[in-house]
Amino acid sequence: MKLLLILILTFSFQTLCKANDIRDFQIEGMNLGNSLLDHYSEKIIKKRIKLTKQAFPSSDKFFRTYFKSKSKEYDFIGIHLKKNDFQYIIYSISGQKNMTFSKCKKKSESIENELKNILGENYKSKAREVKHTHDKTGKSINLEIYFTPIDNDDFWPALITCTNWSKKYEKKNFFDNLSVSLNSEDFSNFMFYEAYK
Questions:
Q1: Fewer CB within 10 Å, N- or C-terminus of the chain?
Q2: pTM summary value
């Protein structure tokens, strides 16, 4: 009887831990740590990389590529892959949807509440407003809500961003949008310490 109780508690604890793991959440059916080959052929992946590859200014350890969304939830899906990784492991995944900034702010609050319920008390959320790095005039902004483990502010496993482009960029067909990102710890460390040195 005691052994049975120990087994039940062990499996219950494992299930609880797993439920609070960002790797278990999906965007377009894709999880962090899985291979992109589970969703697309290598031929399609290579074609998308050739057409949409985006590098970082200070390091080429990771790069981003884009796919058109298969659902109505997002317009595009961004995937961060590691250089020379021919297993195409997903280190970060984001869904992007064009919408007005005001609509995005309402939607982001809803998503934040969902993530709070899912991630549980081991994570906290914070909000900040920053200038968009692409706009050197400083007039375009990102409103960000990011989640961190309670004991590690340098790891952002989830990030919700509302982008408000300036009028100048809107005239260039830049659209205000919502972005929801899931990040591995390896990729989060890269963004903090290597990507923009």
A1: N
A2: 0.83
